[in-house]
Amino acid sequence: MNEERIMIAETCERLFAAHLDAEVFRTAEAGRFPHGLWDAITENGLDRILVPEAQGGSGLGWEDAHVVLLAAGRHAAPVPLAEAIAAGGLLGQLPDGIVTLGTSGADPEMVRVPWGRDAGHMLVSDADDGLRCVSLDGAAITRDRNIGRDPRDGVVVEGLVTGNMGVDQVHAAGALVRSCQMAGAVSAVLDLCVTYTNERVQFGRPIGRFQAIQQQLAVMAGEAAAAGVAARAACRMVDAGGNIIAAAATAKIRTGEAAGKAANIAHQVHGAIGFTDEYRLHHLTRRLWAWRSEFGAESNWAGLLGRLVAARGADKLWPDLTDG
Amino acid sequence: MQAFAFEPCELPPGADALRTEVRAFLDAEAADILVPARARSWVGFDAEFSRKLGDRGWLGMTWPEPWGQDRSALERYVVIEELLAAGAPVAAHWIAERQSGPLILRFGTDEQRAQLLPGIAAGETYFCIGMSEPDSGSDLASIRSKAEPAEVGGEKGWVVNGRKVWTTYAQHSHYMIALLRTGEAGENRHGGTTQFVIDLATPGVTVQPIRNMIGDEEFNEVTFDDVFVPAGMLVGEEGNGWRQVTAELSFERSGPDRFLSAFALLKALVHVAGENPSDMAAAAIGRLHAHLTTLRAMSLSVAAQLDAGAEPALEAAFVKDLGVMFEQSIPEIAHQVIGASPRIDHGDDFEQVLAYVQQACVSFSLRGGTTEIMRGVIARGLGLR
Lengths: 324, 385
Ligand SMILES: Cc1cc2nc3c(=O)[nH]c(=O)nc-3n(C[C@H](O)[C@H](O)[C@H](O)COP(=O)(O)OP(=O)(O)OC[C@H]3O[C@@H](n4cnc5c(N)ncnc54)[C@H](O)[C@@H]3O)c2cc1C
Description:
The structure holds two protein chains of two kinds. Chain A is of the alpha+beta class. Chain A has eleven helices and nine strands. Chain A has two domains: about 5-155, Butyryl-Coa Dehydrogenase, subunit A, domain 1 (Orthogonal Bundle); about 170-315, Butyryl-CoA Dehydrogenase, subunit A, domain 3, CATH 1.20.140.10. Chain B is an alpha+beta fold. Chain B contains 13 helices and eight strands. Chain B has a four-stranded mixed β-sheet with strand order 1-4-5-8, with helices on one face. The chains are: A alpha+beta, B alpha+beta. The interface between A and B is large, with 52 and 54 residues.
């Protein structure tokens, strides 16, 4: 990583360490917006990292933003930071207040929206995949939560027709930020597991000395490594002018798979302590399960990517992989 | 914090031109290889093809002059991934160029370099690896085949006795790099072994092919019966065998062969799925494609680290483990999605490629270190003790 990204990573670590503790999680997950944490984030401009300097942002690229998103994932941050980053990247500016992403669900009238109740605006794709930043003043909100216990509200805006193509720019940007968050969260889960299994003693030795545990954590580490590479590569691809839908597809498929595997192994090696409310593993694993299904599950993206690959034909498989 | 790093790798300028050159070469020299044969790629033995690669300067290209052309490891990477993706028959020179040459370059003497490297770079001198023995597989440190100092006809050297097994293509190789016991193992069990170059034409060497379960003769048993090895054929330091072997394995574990060994099957799968695949086939292809893209990025990152002189043993182990799991999943998925029956004598390309890969892929998680051993390496790297 270059100097600037190391600095961004350090800023994020300091910020989350100072403003995100068990109490913040408790109140945020009970439905109260964590203003202290959010203000610290916006004062540091992390939400506007992709917005050009002329528009009051940092004017950085996706690979830089990915460092912030990894940190947000590592800390399971219960705030709409990823949504703001994605919106800023797509729009090139951000209105005041909280901006979130809308993604169409089963009901074409209702848009599923992270932090819909708290947001002033939501970014959606219209029927031609053009961007629309819609005010949520007066929108009808049905409060709901994902299993991360973060707000995922149903939003109905009078007269709004969204893309509902399944995949549009907003959906893809959402998938890309979720991929980065998952990569971060999986790496944090791995760290927790390594620390815990080196400390927990059974049969007279740390359980991390048992080969059965070691083999499981080796699998998890491989998944963490692959998730990290996939998320970052997708961000680099977007920075290089690549198609955000193709980039997001690979990242969401690979990180989503890593998320599922890592969460299961983590709970197995932790035993009962990992199933308690007090131990912080579940802040990460519940969000991993939520994030992997948001903005398209692995199977949705795999179907889309597979169709793109098949349409190009077998003889283009290798050239596309190396030239693209 | 994280014990591993995969910085993204940029291919050097000129890589595109080189890739185009290799593709043109393959169009000219490998166009009529049948699809089922392409599935074999790095077990396809074709001395003539290897010589042609040597003529083009594509063997040993990273070695310093006068042995090679001082090109970067990433340029070599481009060449070999193109060869593998095309399923070109690269087995003849494969081990010599990938492992033995670099080992001799790094640890060998000037005489060894002068004697052995030009033949490897020309695609004419072939090597095999003599590590495994009947009683020593994963527990390589327990080898018993031994070399004892001796003087024969006034010449100083070593006398070798013992047996190596699973030695890939020993029957076609000129030399073996053998790991042999020259002393006591000692406390950490890793001492007392030494690497030697053994000329397989020396009296007392017997090479006996062992037919594998596919019906092919690829690996062998090699017996040494009072085989004299001149003193000048010891590689590196006496007693330093373990360290040298470990360095060698990083090259074996992270290259593009780690995710392209079953590429012919993936390509065949895309072909039979057609332009308008079923939902199930599309999802399967998309998932495999995402894995392949990610693995290639990881493997390239390790290549760049090796090129910069680092020793990314942990990262290489990830590439091997994930790569093998990916490759072994391809026949499973092909089976579930297409449901074709693998065929040996006739059948279409897909059925024949499936037949080969289905059988061959069980060996991918054995050779070069088993899955369990690789995961042990990873666990140690993570700090689990
Ligand atoms: C196609 C092919 C080509 C090969 N080519 C070569 C070659 O050219 N040169 C060469 O030297 N060798 C070669 N090998 C040998 C290869 O390196 C060995 O097969 C490998 O090291 C495993 O040794 P083994 O087969 O004796 O199995 P074993 O070591 O007996 O292992 C059997 C099983 O036990 C497990 N196991 C063993 N020890 C442990 C442990 N400590 N903890 C947990 N599980 C354990 C293994 O993971 C494996 O699942 C080749 C093998 C194959 C299949």
